[in-house]
């Protein structure tokens, strides 16, 4: 009963907090937003802002492969994120959805800026 109550509270919090902030820099695609809401990820994470857990852009900076992110969804390793509370294992997330989330997270990794084309002197 306590476990289901905790999930219910997390779901309510996630629903209330799932609206994007006006200051958000990262646009979350609708399909990813639906998964992040469904699995209560928004209770602790945002795309580009530290909340209870790290921002997804910070996770992307770690350079984990998609499969490694999936592993960490199921079996978090708090030592990877000192200064944050430990994440609960999210074993209810189907592997296919976890892989979609991991792929999106890694898409947030900073891409090197392309150099502007040199101007020709006339």
Labels describing this entry:
about 120 residues, mainly alpha, globular, 5 helices
**H-E string:** HHHHH
Number of helices: 5
Helix percentage range: 40-55%
Average per-residue pLDDT, rounded, comes to 82
Largest β-sheet summary: none
Radius of gyration: 17 Å
Q: Which quaternary structure do these chains form? A: single chain
Span of the ends, CA to CA: 77 Å
What general form does the structure show? globular
Low-pLDDT sequence parts: 5-9, 11-23
Q: What would you say this structure looks like, in words?
A:
- The chain has helices spanning 2-17, 30-38, 56-61, 66-74, 95-107.
- Helix 4 (66-74) crosses helix 5 (95-107).
- 43% of the residues lie in helices and 0% in strands.
- By secondary structure, it is mostly helical.
- The N and C termini lie far apart (77 Å).
Please describe the topology of this protein:
Layout: H1 2-17, H2 30-38, H3 56-61, H4 66-74, H5 95-107
Helix pairs in contact: 4-5
In short:
About 45% of the residues lie in helices and about 0% in strands. With about 120 residues, it is an all-alpha fold.
């Amino acid at each position: 009963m306590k476990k289901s109550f905790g999930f219910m509270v997390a779901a309510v919090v996630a629903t209330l907090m799932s609206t994007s902030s006006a200051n958000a820099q990262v646009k979350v695609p609708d399909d990813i937003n639906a998964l992040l809401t469904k699995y209560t990820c928004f209770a602790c994470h945002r795309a580009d802002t530290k909340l209870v857990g790290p921002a997804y852009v910070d996770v992307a900076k770690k350079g984990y492969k998609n499969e490694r992110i999936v592993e960490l969804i199921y079996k978090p390793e708090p030592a990877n994120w000192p200064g944050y509370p430990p994440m609960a294992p999210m074993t209810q997330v189907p592997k296919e959805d976890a892989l979609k989330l991991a792929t999106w997270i890694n898409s947030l990794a900073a891409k090197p800026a392309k150099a502007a084309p040199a101007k020709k002197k006339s």
